[in-house]
Amino acid sequence: MSALIQQLNPEQHAAVTLPAENALILAGAGSGKTRVLTTRIAWLISTGQVSPAGILAVTFTNKAAKEMMARLSAQLPISVRGMWIGTFHGLCNRFLRAHWREAGLPQTFQILDVQDQLANIKRLLKALNVDEQRHPPKQVQWFINGAKEQGLRPGDVEARDQQSRQLVEIYLAYEAQCTRDGVADFAELLLRSYEILRDNPAIRAHYRQRFRHILVDEFQDTNRLQYQWLKLLAGPEDAQGACVFAVGDDDQSIYAFRGAHAGNMDDYQREFHVRHLIKLERNYRSHGHILDSANTLIANNARRLGKNLRTEAGAGEPVRVFEAPSDYAEAQWLIDEVRQLLREGLPHSEIAVLYRANALSRVIEGALFNAGLPYRVYGGLRFFERAEVKHALAYLRLLDNPQDDTAFLRVVNFPARGIGARTLEQLQDAARLRATPLSEAVDALGGRGAASLQAFLDLVAQMRFQTAAMSLPDLVRHVLEASGLNAHYREEREGQERLENLEELVNAAAAFVTQEGFGLNATAQQRQALGTASDAADSPAAIEAIDPATGETLSPLTAFLTHAALEAGDNQAQNGQDAIQMMTVHAAKGLEFDAVFITGLEEGLFPHENALSEADGVEEERRLMYVAITRARKRLYLSLAQTRMLHGQTRYNLRSRFFDELPPQALKWLSAKQPGFSQVLASSFDRDEQRGWNAPSKAVSGGFDPSTFTPPPPKTSHGLRVGQGVFHNKFGEGVVLSLEGSGDEARAQVRFNRHGTKWLALNIAKLTPVN
Ligand code: ATP
Ligand code: MG
């Protein structure tokens, strides 16, 4: 422990060893905030100031929580399993599992993820006969979540006009539906925990007494409700209140669009009477050129608390910039650079590809896949969100809770059982009339429809019966077969990958059982733990698996389903596999990598067009860019594409304004600075010359001044040029994306309309120009 403290610089040291009073550590990226927070926990425990059970720490992702626990258990001879370290959602879920009665939730309540919530809302709008044009489901979702994040129930929302009155009515009906189904959405987890603490003095007193130290990472991104929740939990400072240790960086506040409120930092200082404000100014993460870029960029923001960062690491490599003619060329360039980094000995996992929006990952994913490079996409369509996995989870949910209408509707006719939309509408009407779940309204229907529905219910009941004594992985495997899902995908032409994902679900269940301690004797052990420990919350298995009031255990299945819903996509890492990391900039917060690629740096994409019309929009985008840049330790690459296919349209893009806000001396342009896409499409694009930093940095498109002159398309021996339409006997029509080599070595990369992108050897493939 003392060795850890010794590694700290004087400011960090002061922060770690502050007395037990409220504090704020305000510092830029990579200055050691997270490290200070973790070390403080270790210091508090090892100096006997608090027991592990007396600590509550909030992290931004599940992954960060796990990392923190891993570090602590490496440093201290304690079991960290029972510690309350997690995201706001994770911690609130844990809280509600212990207090489901007070929460008015069934013990096995399921969590609705974002997609489930949207499906629920769509169903509701239909039932209420609300015109989707007038109230688009996504907008309703946004309204409901926004209200909840401000702590507002339907009765609290001020509705001034007809439109908002209707929204409030929908919100009310949505709540009723969730209660009937026994489900809670993400925002509900937080709001309900907050309300229990607010309305229940005994519970409040219990937790206030229990948590002596509350530590919050990424404080700048807390929203109002989270802030209020912390305030309730911490309690008044004077009496028995907890001591709060918050770390944050106003320049990294990137969740305003989701209700985060950087003003919480000011409120916190005032309302919590913060006695200690410490700034950290030394950056330990990035080399000089990278840090200069970050500092220079963020200086363009007007609203800042003002901090500076310096490094002692030396200037390091320049930031490499590449302007590609197309998204495909950008991806190809990225592959070349990645290969170079791998040759230099970098592990895959130290390379990150960042983008502003999930939709941008597809082309790069394709290129990585074709190149045979292992990669992992965080966020986006996460494992637990894939259609086949959600189908399987829906069956599992029905086993667990037959009243779960969302799950019911998802699989009642999947695989197809001849249950038509009309039958389902009748069923929903009947259920509404009787105010029961769908599964209890089946007997109201007659005819063939009713018989098929009954057969479905019987199937579910039978599966429940057959799996009652099975271990979780066996149960999952059984359900995959008995539900007909496996058979369905075996017959589907492209079902192989889906089958593999389903198999992966069995693996996930097995891993979950091992990790969470649901071994053979788990139940007995947990019961015993409950009998001896006064506070059931001292082990995560206990808090998640046991009802403290009755000692009743939560089934491994329920716990697993909760895990699936909460898993924020940041834990897809299959054990030990070394892969390139792909994620949105939002998802990269708090992380660091040796090499970082920031792609798609185009006006409208980054900064995003939606942000351009808002007052603080561009500033928030700039903070996002600051987060992206500061993820890199040694190498930073910035790239853009002049044309890009997005959402089915070709976009012609301008270079992001952020390039003008970076220090020119820190950048090295690998491509010629080109003003517009038209010249580039018309010019030959020789990949070999544009490759990496080893190539001489000469202008690629010839020595013309592009602002005044559009060169004629240069013809090569094979007569093809980039951007040209071609026809191939087998693959049909396509467009040339890039060309390389000459004579017998000449190859062309062609994007075919119907067969995707292919590299073709031009001495073999017959390509006929079509325009
Ligand atoms: P972010 O704002 O991006 O979340 P941060 O302020 O939380 O960054 P950390 O992630 O804690 O910064 O630290 C950045 C890197 O610097 C980590 O690799 C950390 O181990 C290292 N580091 C921090 N302090 C020191 C120190 N005193 N000596 C050596 N390395 C340090
Ligand atoms: Mg951090």
Summarize the structure.
The protein has 30 helices and 23 strands. With 771 residues, the protein is of the alpha/beta class.
Describe this protein's structure.
It is a single chain. The protein is an alpha/beta fold and 771 residues long. It is built from 30 helices and 23 strands. The N and C termini lie far apart (71 Å). Magnesium ion is lined by residues 33-34, 217, 590.
Secondary structure elements and pairings:
Elements: H1 2-6, H2 10-16, E1 23-27, H3 33-46, E2 55-58, H4 62-75, E3 84-86, H5 88-98, H6 100-103, E4 110-112, H7 114-127, H8 137-149, H9 162-181, E5 183-185, H10 186-199, H11 201-210, E6 213-216, H12 224-234, E7 243-248, H13 264-271, E8 276-280, E9 282-283, H14 288-298, E10 310-311, E11 319-326, H15 327-343, E12 351-355, H16 361-370, E13 375-377, H17 387-400, H18 405-411, H19 421-434, H20 447-467, H21 472-482, H22 485-491, H23 496-515, H24 522-532, H25 540-545, H26 556-566, E14 580-584, E15 593-598, H27 609-612, H28 617-629, E16 632-646, E17 649-652, E18 667-669, H29 677-682, H30 687-690, E19 725-728, E20 732-740, E21 747-752, E22 756-761, E23 767-769
Parallel strand pairs: 1-7, 1-8, 2-3, 2-6, 4-5, 6-7, 9-10, 11-16, 11-18, 12-14, 12-15, 13-14, 15-16
Antiparallel strand pairs: 16-17, 19-20, 19-23, 20-21, 21-22
Helix pairs in contact: 2-3, 3-4, 5-10, 7-8, 7-9, 10-12, 14-28, 15-16, 17-18, 17-20, 21-23
Bound molecules: adenosine-5'-triphosphate and magnesium ion.
